[in-house]
Design goal:
The structure is a single chain. The chain has about 325 residues and is mostly helical. The chain is about 75% helix and about 0% strand. It is built from eight helices and no strands. The N and C termini lie far apart (about 90 Å). It is found in: Golgi apparatus membrane; Golgi apparatus, trans-Golgi network. Its main location: Golgi. It comes from Macrosiphum euphorbiae. Pfam families: Arfaptin (PF06456).
Length: about 325
């Protein structure tokens, strides 16, 4: 066995000599000597680096340390409550939807309001079809106008190079230029019609449909908590059930108020939307009719008067706009 030698440390030698003396000492004398020795204060030596709170939750202020110890940090219970309430609400709504499809639960239905909502969705679908066709017509008519302009320029060029047919080429060139000029005015009216119908279909009606979706979600939540309250009301009257019924009654009342509020918002929005739709479409259809009639009757003055009457800004078609319309498709 190898021999271990310790040198250079007086504390170690002192400890070895003292142990050798105490081995031959009487137990009573050893006890008295130990009690007479002064006690050294214990120092706390951490076995790891102190942790710094670098990601404390918002709104949380750590309490000061007590006796050199770091207190247990607690996260605010509001986030946990939000997750818990969301989970409970999602479960109840999913259960309500399944029970409605299986015929095990009743559904709150406003027949008159549901009819108006279905009519609105059908109206948006039909207006979307009109918008699609009007866009296609505007794009094709724009290409037609550019072709007319090119044909008129070709007639004018040939009229200068063919003296024997100069009069005929010039007449056709002037006719195509006049038609293309009127076509630009009709195209401006078409673009104005497309822009207005697009705003009505994809913004105004869509905003009302968003409110309707919120109303339908509130209806499901209302029915879910109503069914929950009806089920608890049929259970035996115990202390725990009484507390649960009170909580269910409070949740039911809260969702009922929210459901009724959204229902009234939907009714008001449907009313104003119908008035706005009639007003906008009356103006656009009248403008579309007058511009089309003036164009095909070759009445340039009536066409310009129609554009001024409805505040349509003139824009001449260009090749870049045709390319942009083709790329958008």
């Amino acid at each position: 066995m190898s021999r271990i030698t310790i040198s250079g440390d007086p504390t170690v030698h002192e400890y070895i000599n003292r142990n050798a003396e105490t081995d031959n000492m009487h137990p009573a004398i050893l006890r008295s000597e130990i009690e007479a020795r002064p006690l050294r204060p214990r120092t706390y030596v951490p076995n790891s680096l102190p942790l710094t709170n670098t990601a404390a939750p918002r709104g949380y202020t750590p309490s000061p340390t007590q006796n050199g110890e770091i207190p247990h940090q607690k996260f605010p219970s509001s986030k946990i409550d939000v997750i818990k309430n969301w989970s409970v609400s999602t479960y109840k709504c999913t259960k309500q939807l399944i029970n409605e499809k299986l015929g095990k639960s009743s559904k709150t239905v406003d027949i008159e309001l549901e009819t108006e909502i279905e009519q609105l969705r059908e109206t948006q679908k039909k207006y979307g079809n009109i918008l699609k066709l009007a866009k296609s017509m505007a794009t094709q008519f724009q290409c037609f106008i550019l072709t007319q302009q090119s044909l008129g320029e070709a007639f004018a060029e040939l009229g200068q190079k063919s003296p024997e047919l100069q009069q005929e080429f010039v007449q056709n060139s002037e006719t195509q230029k006049c038609l293309s000029k009127n076509g630009e005015s009709l195209l401006n009216a078409l673009n104005f019609f497309v822009s207005s119908v697009n705003t009505l279909c994809n913004k105004t009606i869509e905003d009302t449909l968003i409110t309707i979706k919120q109303y339908e979600c509130a209806r499901i939540e209302y029915d879910a908590y109503r069914s929950d309250l009806e089920m608890l009301a049929q259970m035996p009257r115990t202390d725990s059930n009484t507390v649960r019924v009170g909580d269910a009654q409070q949740n039911y009342q809260q969702h009922k108020e929210e459901f009724e509020k959204l229902r009234s918002d939907v009714i008001v929005k449907l009313k104003f939307l119908d008035e706005n739709r009639v007003k906008v479409m009356h103006k656009q259809l009248l403008m579309f009719h007058n511009a089309t009639l003036a164009y095909f009757s070759n009445n340039h003055q009536a066409l310009e008067t129609t554009l001024k009457q409805f505040n349509v800004k003139p824009k001449s078609p260009t090749a870049s706009s045709v390319a942009a319309s083709w790329l958008e498709k």
